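Fold it.
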Amino acid sequence: MADIDLYVDPVCPFAWVAAQWLLDSAADQHVLTLRPMSLAVLNGDHDVDADHAPMIVRSRRIGRVFAAAVQQYGQSAFTPLYIELGLRLHASARPADDAVAAALVATGFDHELIEALDDTRYDAAVADAHNASQTALGGRSGSPIIGVDGHVFSGPVLTEPPEPGHGTELLAAITTAATTPGFAALQRPYQGPPAIAGSEEQR
């Protein structure tokens, strides 16, 4: 059994695919913890092209809601809110504010947390959580980041969920690689955006 940490930005579709894979494949064998990071903080000092700018805005605003939820309910609030948001933001492609509002209802969290979307008082907490992800990795990386028993790597980047029955095999391979002394990186050229069932381009 391994302790697995997956650092995710709630607006990142690649992280959503990876999280769904791990939630399906790791629950009975490993201890899985989802943790926040922020693409908005990551790109705060960089120019972002017009295609990605809306995602950075969503990252900043939605990250505040997660920070507020964690502040009010504790770290255990992150995963259920992440799942409920992802079902609406990624799988159903609902507008961000609507997705957040519906996710708060589904989790039973205080509906007034929606006000955190535009509350800059939570920016410091978002930055602290993001910096923790980069410290764990020991470098700069986007979403997702995976840690296996303290061995932390950028990724895994999945463009689609593994086929039925292959999820545990992929997890076993990644766990073996992560805990192999000297293993540093494995990467192929960019394969395009992830395919998420029922999704369409985010607004």
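The CA atoms of residues 69 and 109 lie 8 Å apart.
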